[in-house]
Write a structure and sequence with these properties.
single chain; about 50% strand; five-stranded mixed sheet; 9 strands; about 130 residues; four-stranded antiparallel sheet
C-alpha cells in the first residue's frame, strides 16, 4: 500500500475480496489509518479535472466503454504514478509511471461502462484531465 520514510498523509484505493484481513505497520512514531468501503453506483461525469498534492484516491468517475483520454502533469521530484481502477478495485491500466516533474497524456480503452477510480502516487502537486 504505502512505503514511505518520514511524514505521510495520503489515500490509497485497494481492491480486496470479501474476507478478514490484518493490517501490518512498521513505524517509529504515532500513526492513524482510516479504512473506507465506498459503495457508489455513479460518479463524476467526464470531461473533468482533478488536482491534488501527494498520494490520493481520485473518484468516483463515471465512464462509458470506449476511449478515454488522460492528460497528466506532476511537479514533484520523486515517483509519479497514476493507475486506473474499476469500482471493484481491479487494475485496468497504468496511465503514468515517471520520476520527477513530468507532463504527458495517454488514451486508453475503457472495457465497460461504470464507475472507475484513479490511484495517484505523487510527492508534489499533480493534475489529471479526463476526456472522452
Amino acid at each position: 500500500m504505502s512505503n514511505v520514510i518520514g511524514r505521510y498523509v495520503g489515500a490509497v484505493p485497494v481492491g480486496v475480496k470479501a474476507g478478514s484481513y490484518l493490517l501490518e505497520t512498521d513505524a517509529d512514531g504515532s500513526w492513524k489509518v482510516t479504512i473506507l468501503q465506498p459503495r457508489v453506483t455513479s460518479g463524476k461525469a467526464i470531461p473533468t479535472t482533478y488536482q491534488g498534492k501527494g498520494p490520493y484516491a481520485v473518484g468516483p468517475v463515471q465512464m462509458d466503454s470506449g476511449r478515454a483520454g488522460f492528460a497528466m502533469k506532476h511537479d514533484g521530484e520523486s515517483n509519479f504514478a497514476v493507475l486506473l481502477m474499476n469500482n471493484k478495485g481491479q487494475k485496468l491500466e497504468l496511465l503514468a509511471n515517471e520520476i520527477g516533474a513530468w507532463s504527458g497524456s495517454k488514451a486508453v480503452r475503457v472495457p465497460a461502462r461504470g464507475v472507475n477510480w484513479l490511484s495517484v502516487d505523487a510527492d508534489g502537486s499533480w493534475q489529471v484531465d479526463i476526456s472522452k
